[in-house]
Design brief:
Layout: H1 10-23, E1 28-32, H2 35-43, H3 46-49, E2 54-58, H4 69-80, E3 84-88, H5 102-107, E4 112-114, H6 120-127, E5 132-139, H7 144-156, E6 162-168, H8 172-179, E7 188-191, H9 193-199, H10 205-211, E8 215-217, H11 222-238, E9 243-245, H12 257-266, E10 267-274, E11 278-287, H13 296-299, H14 315-319, H15 343-346, H16 351-358
Parallel strand pairs: 1-2, 1-7, 3-4, 3-5, 5-6, 7-8, 8-9
Antiparallel strand pairs: 10-11
Helix pairs in contact: 1-11, 2-16, 7-12
Length: 363
Amino acid sequence: MNLIDEFRDKQSILALKKLIEKEIKNSINIMEICGGHTHSIMKYALPSILPKEINFIHGPGCPVCVMPRNRIDIAIKLASMKDNIFCTLGDLLRVPGSDFSLIDLRAKGADIRALYSPLEILEIAKENPNKNIIFFAIGFETTTPMSALLLEKVIELNLKNVFFHINHITVPAPIEAIMDDENVQINAFLGPSHVSVITGFEIYKPIAAKHKTPIAVSGFEPVDIMESILNIVRQINEGTFEVYNQYKRAVSKKGNIKAQNLVAKYFEPCDFEFRGLGVIKNGGLKLREEFGDFDASKQFDCMVLSKNENKACICGKILRGLAKPYDCKVFAKACTPRNPIGSCMVSSEGACAAYYRYSKVNV
């Protein structure tokens, strides 16, 4: 049997469905923080399987989606500079800046590279000693340790042509910002699993206690999500607000201490602007002062004047859980994966991309 077959087993899903239907008493708004959960929820049609009382709200758990236009414009400026090789991860290349995207700039001849692993930069730097290698680092706690490891290797190898523009962000800070909004209507959270492998599930306990909101750290498979929803239903029925670790096969209480220490060695918290959420106190990370020689924001001119977002795009509302993709007038019309207007359609983890791919709304 395939290792994941049991987590996609039809009979298990239907059994959990019956339990949820039997035990649910009130409507529950559940925000899934991670974009991976959004895609699984849509891929396996869980909204159509679950009772109507379960309402999924899509959160800011996609690092590409929450990147503000200002930082996209900074990336484009760095990538356009003479003698720079610009490197990054994920779908960032396709996110529209004020005038064009990184992929448009690459089509014009700029040396822009999408990486599978940050450590690829070590070879790029050695092969191009007369070029500046700019690593535009993005991601939540899942990818931050790799950026820290890369910096450690750069220092060990005495590479002088590698620079970091740090755009790493944290999960707890945007959750707090969302829950502090007076318009919030969230009753529970599906906690991110891959992030929690690094941070541990205990990190969410203060949020659950402060806001009296259950949090279920869930795997990505349909059985994982259904088990997590059942736990949330039971917690709400009992009036408890604990952090439930459904993803025990990978997540522990304390997380990966070695990775956490590596991150703390090179990075420190900073305020960070999230698309749709504004500036969040300690929402991001930056290089510690002693590593300023590697900081692209200090070694290059990163000043930009960004234009306002397209008024037709409601990615900001979607990321705050105040709207769903099909509430957007341009969804699946002017805005498609081939011609994305907003970041939620660009990213493979974006809510709009998930709805477009799996929902019948776009037909």
